[in-house]
Structures are given as structure tokens and as C-alpha cells.
Amino acid sequence: MLDFRYHAISLAAVFLALVIGILAGVGISGRGFVDDVERNSFNRRITQLDERVTAAEERSDDLERRQAAAQEFVESAYPVLADGRLAGTNVAVLVVGSVDITVDWVRRALARSDGRLIRLRAITVPLPTDEVEQALQSGDAFGGYVGEDELGNLGRDLGRELAAGGETPLWDLLTPDLVGQRDGSFETPADALVVIRPAEPQQGETARFLGGLYRGLASTGQPVVGVELTRVLQSALPAFQRSGLSTVDGVDTPLGGLALILLLGGAEPGAYGIRDTADDGILPPIEPLAPIPGG
Question: Taking all residues of the chain, what is their mean pLDDT, rounded to a whole number?
Fold first, then answer.
């Protein structure tokens, strides 16, 4: 989404440079280097540039007013739109790196919508490759995952196990080396999943592993949403999007919280929020809740 405030600032800076150049030219003209026709032309250009800056500032103000109105609407309508929307929905959370405050905002969204967080797994990055390979080599059943070329497949199958629950031989084997923090069991299948990456972008073997992990989650057919806070140093959303995950920026705002709830509830997948990564708008389409039998 284009932010006209930054557009206006950039435009004003360019126009200021042009005006300085024009004024310098007019100063030269005062010493006889250009004639009156050229001076009038310079003055007309200054007037036109000033009008364009004013128009850009007006568009910026208009956008700010519309964003403020949308925020006010969502804040007032949030309880009505969110309450009960995820009732009966079991949600799993994957954290890449250490658990941070983003998880608290996800919990708040689930609590507001009656969703249930059934498990959370925070994996260590960079990937402890040597330890993981030693664990895989300890049993004949896992030999097919050994080697750098198999890291994507390893991540893919871990993602599928995280979603499906039940028997999870890979997680059982690798948890001591791979998992830093955890909550909940694998007893119940997940109806939807949330992915958070507080860690810095990864390279090499870890990046291949994570790409496979994200794609494995996306292949389950369940809603999978990558989220992050309004302000981050390095966004993970492009990496999530490349792997086929829906995304939401600003999960710490009512707009972001509602977008997450809608997506976990089966809304149209896509990239939502207010940043330029939000190619599909601020919110997915809001479908009415099914009536409660006997209600």
C-alpha cells in the first residue's frame, strides 16, 4: 500500500532542489545572463512545482484521515467481528527463534475469538546441523533425511507433523536439539497455524531447512498465517509469502488482530496489513458467522 506521507516528503525534497536551481538561475539572470522571458518561465515553473507539492500534501492528509477512520471503525467493531469466530478452532504456533511479545498478541487474538492454542514450538536457529545429523543417524528409519540436500525435505515433514499431530517421530527425535521452548502436546490435530520469526534472516543450510518447513506447513491445506509486529528491524513476511503462507503485519493492532482471526477462520488467503508487503489490502473479506443452532 502506498503511503502518501513518504511520497509527499520525497516529492517536496525533489521540488526544493529544483527550486533552488531555478532561483540560482534567476540570480544569474539578475546579472544579465538571461532575459525576461526566461525569468518569467522560471517563475511559472516555481508556481507549478509549489502546486504539485500542495496537491501531494493534500493527498497525504486525505490518506491519513481515511486510515484513522478505518482504525476507529475496526476498534469499535472488533469485538462484534471477532467474538466467537474461532470457537472450536485448534491453533498451533511455530516460532523461529526465541519466543517474544508477538506470541502474546497472538494469544490475545485467540482469546478474543474463542480459538484454542493447542501447542507452541520455538525452534533454535541457526540450525544445529551436526547435532541434528547425529540424531538422524541414530536410527535406520531417519537415514533418508541425512545430508545437506535433504534439509528441505526434513523441514517439510516436520511442518506436516506439527500440523497433523498424533504420531510425530521426527519431533520426538529432534526436540532435544531443535526446540528451545515448547508448550502443549501433539495429541490434537491443528485446524490452523501461526508462524512467527523473531530471529534474523537465515542463510545457507538453515534457510533451506526453514524454506522446507514453511512449505510443509503450506502443503497441509490448513490456514497458515505468518505474522509480525507493526515495527520490526527485518521483516519475515516476504520469506513467508515466497513459501505460500498468508501474512499479516501489525498483529499488535486491532486491524492486524482481526486480519489474523479472519484468516485462521478460513478467509481468503493473502497478504494483509498496511505495509507495502500487503498486496491484498488491509483485511480479507469478512464473511458473516454461521448462526448458532437454537440461538
Answer: 87
Residues 261 and 129 in one domain: yes
Query: Is the domain of 99 the same as that of 232?
Result: yes
Closest to 203 measured CA to CA, from 246, 234, 175, 166: 234
Range of the domain at 39: 4-80
List CB contacts of 246: < 8 A, sequence separation 6 or more.
223, 224, 225, 226, 263, 269, 270, 271, 272
Could you tell me if 143 and 243 lie in one domain? yes
Position 277 in a domain = no
Answer with the one of 80, 104, 122 that is the final residue of a domain. Answer: 80
**Separation CA 292–CA 295 (nearest Å):** 5
In a domain, 279, yes or no: no
- Which of 233-259 are b and which e, b meaning 16 or more Cβ less than 10 Å from the residue's Cβ? eebbbebbbebebbbbbbbbbbbbbbb
Domain count, the chain: 2
- Alpha carbons 276 and 295: distance in angstroms, whole number: 42
Beta bridge partners of 247: 226, 271
Please tell me the predicted confidence (pLDDT) of residue 159: 98
Quote the pLDDT of residue 15: 57
- The pLDDT confidence band at residue 9, using thresholds 50, 70 and 90, is low
pLDDT for the residue 32: 47
**Comparing 69-73, 89-93, 150-154, 184-188, which segment has the lowest mean pLDDT?**
69-73
